[in-house]
Design a protein that fits this description.
By secondary structure, this protein is mostly helical. The protein has six helices and three strands.
């Protein structure tokens, strides 16, 4: 089992955990109440966080779109955590460049799933093992949740406007997967 398989298994496990964790375990109240300040009706809370549902749906849709664009005759995609195993099974015959694109999607989603569940330490650990793409400093990238980007904290690493360089998670994930593939290829060559 390779690193890509591990990433897919982790992403699937996180998606399954999100589905289970964010479903409320207690019944909602039967009757809507009223809001004191406006007097308008209130309704019971949704049994699941709609932001998480949208995130999960978007993740499955992205993986399915990737597979369908590269393997048009693939079987229909599952609409749950099994989508990652389905992706691995349907894309094994692709050329290495297109496989890396799929692995980068899965790795980025794995980090996004962690963020969606509030586990920012997973992303912080990943960033601490990455060098800044612009200045090359190690352990200088930090996650900025409000802007949903990694920012280099090296005070000399700024753009022409004087702002710190920042990077999307997708860019860093793709860069990480490419580096991991080069390391694996070098290991197999010796």
């Amino acid at each position: 089992m390779g690193a890509g398989d591990d990433d897919a298994a982790t992403a699937a496990q996180q998606l399954k955990l999100m589905a289970a964790h964010y479903v409320r375990r207690h019944p909602a109240p039967r009757e809507p109440g009223t809001i004191r300040s406006t007097g308008g009706p209130t309704f019971p809370p949704l049994p699941i966080d709609p932001g998480i549902v949208d995130h999960m749906r978007a993740s499955v849709t992205e993986v399915a779109a990737y597979v369908e664009s590269n393997v048009p005759d693939a079987s229909p995609a599952p609409a749950d955590d099994r989508v990652y195993a389905w992706m691995r099974a349907n894309t094994r015959q692709l050329d290495p460049r297109r496989q890396l694109t799929g692995e980068a999607i899965v790795f980025r989603q794995r980090l996004e799933h962690a963020l969606a569940m509030g586990e920012t330490e997973v992303v912080h650990r990943f960033l601490k093992r990455q060098s800044c793409p612009d200045c090359g400093c190690w352990a200088s990238l930090v996650w900025q949740n409000p802007v949903t980007r990694a920012v280099c904290i090296n005070r000399r690493c700024v753009n022409q406007d004087g702002r710190a360089h920042s990077y999307e998670l997708g860019f860093l994930a793709h860069r990480h997967i490419r580096a991991r593939a080069k390391t694996a290829a070098a290991r197999h060559a010796t």
